[in-house]
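Protein data:
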Amino acid sequence: MFDTIGSKHILQRAPSEGELRERGFNTIYNSYTREPRCMVLNGSAHTHLPGITISQSKNYLWHLRAEASISGWLNGSNIQLPGNDEVETFMSKLSAYVFERTGIPFDARTAKVVRLDITKDFQVGMENVISAIGAISQNKLNKYRKILYDDVNLEFRNKGKRKTKKINFYSKMHRVIYEKLDDESKALAMGILRLEVSYTSNDSIDRLQKQYDLPSKDSSLFLTKSVSDGVINKTIQEFNAGGILAQRDTADHLTLLLQEFSPTRAFTLLGFINSLSIYGKDFYKIEDLGVKKRTYHRYQSDCRKAGIIA
């Protein structure tokens, strides 16, 4: 699956700085010549709107680049990764959005990939997330520089001056807490260890294209299940993480709950199940949690109805 993609087209003519400024773009000037170096329309962290940059390369060609989180823009957050149908919807929506904001035609399907984040979620159980990250951190791979942040975010970057590729293993729940998202988001993120492989340079995109024998850098060729699965499986093998990331019994909990209850109720019960794994049976007795006894037993009864607990 995928999270963020950045793609670009080469423009046939120089853009109108004045027109773009009227459309909300900011101009960044060359510090020596004071000529316009690029024009930027920043994305929104709140709405996940795409960022758009129009810049001039060293060979004097103008490039129109758009970048966005697929699920973030479509669904308001990237907690749930997009399916194949959502990728197609995203490309149609991105084409229309860029044209609306710039007045310049932009085909997202044929735009050339310049950045790509390939991701997969593993439901390992809330009690196992930190230990799983710790186990993966024991890997010593000469071509990567390793950084562990607060035991919940493990980052590997390629060595060398140019940072072309990044691999992250992190707790989605702790990321949601850091971003101060709502309780439903927390319920969805509980127990998830996310693997994210980021290609952030032309060199790394070139290697990915060659690896999968793609005829061009068109976005539609990269945003496929075969590329996504191939990258994730190779990374898991490289880090010897197959056993560590093996999905536990809790992986099917949400599916079972959704068969019996509404999504809102299912997410609430998913949070209850993860609380059981963290605090143990009868955790309503822990006063600081603020869970009432009758609420606890009602949730317990619903989980029994779904066949999750005995």
